[in-house]
């Protein structure tokens, strides 16, 4: 509101902020990430009950973060509860705890991409990934900017974000998480949705 930021990429914005224009460029699923030893005790498509009673706590994102708020809202709205929980504020910390068998989590594809070096080089043999059970959650990422931000630049940035997501993030995810890649929706500035 005070004009300090011209444009930003965010997962959620309150709907009552009227001084910004926004463009969703991605809707992405989260993946269930578990310690590899736990994976052999779960069905190929675990349900929420399997996860709730897997014997490990659910590791959730800091509940004041945008991502943490939206995921907690989804879980609460759908009556999904877990018997024990750990709260952290960093995806790398989550992945490290999971790799050490300390819990499991729900992590969006782009967050996994941000930690790809950690996953590909250090933890690849210690983690297992599953599609999220139904009901499932999709996180929305958007570009937001002040209303007086140049429209052509806003459109160009939206296109660049969609292209990068398609060419880099989904290319990486396709080889590791094909089902999640197929469920990822990319929106381009000229598309209506």
Give an overview of the whole structure:
The strands form two sheets. Strands 1, 2, 5, 6, 7 and 8 form a six-stranded antiparallel sheet that branches. Strands 3-4 form a two-stranded parallel sheet. It is globular, with a radius of gyration of 18 Å. The longest helix is centred in the last third of the chain and has 26 residues, at 151-176. With 193 residues, the chain is an alpha+beta fold. The chain has helices at residues 36-39, 48-52, 66-77, 91-99, 109-114, 116-123, 151-176, 178-183; strands at residues 7-10, 20-35, 58-61, 85-88, 105-108, 127-131, 138-146, 185-186. The protein is built from eight helices and eight strands; from the N terminus they run ββααβαβαβααββααβ.
Properties at a glance:
globular, two-stranded parallel ribbon, 6-stranded antiparallel beta sheet, 8 strands, alpha+beta, 193 residues
Topology (SSEs and partners):
Blueprint: E1 7-10, E2 20-35, H1 36-39, H2 48-52, E3 58-61, H3 66-77, E4 85-88, H4 91-99, E5 105-108, H5 109-114, H6 116-123, E6 127-131, E7 138-146, H7 151-176, H8 178-183, E8 185-186
Parallel strand pairs: 3-4
Antiparallel strand pairs: 1-7, 2-5, 2-6, 2-7, 2-8
Could you tell me how far the N terminus lies from the C terminus, measured between alpha carbons in angstroms?
27 Å
Number of strands: 8
Secondary structural class = alpha+beta
Secondary-structure element series: EEHHEHEHEHHEEHHE
Mean pLDDT: 89
Shape: globular
List low-confidence stretches. Answer: none
Largest sheet: 6 strands, antiparallel
